[in-house]
Predict the 3D structure of the following.
Amino acid sequence: MQFSGGPRNAGQFIPCKNLWIGNLSEECSEDDLRREFGAFGNIEHIKLLSMKNCAFVNYSAVDEALRARNALQGHMIYGRPIRINFGRVRLSVPLSHSHALQHYFTDETKQTSSH
């Protein structure tokens, strides 16, 4: 499954607890991100890379990250539409065997978008 945006050369993305947030304004702070993303679940960690205009937001559960990604994709922060993707995940099974995760993502997206 391929998504647009996200870390360079990341290739394939699957749902995980780690979100990559791109196109951030230099004005954006960790507190801003916590305020915007905190409504979707328990945030374990935020790493802001202000020199690269991006950040990583780590949730305690995959479904929290999925809800945040679906709700905030393209959301304006300091006048800029943010891009959100899942961070990289190290799999214990080959990516070719991840069809179950693809179905999970598709089903979750349908459920989330129908609310």
Q: What stands out?
A: The radius of gyration is 14 Å. The chain has one domain: 18-113.
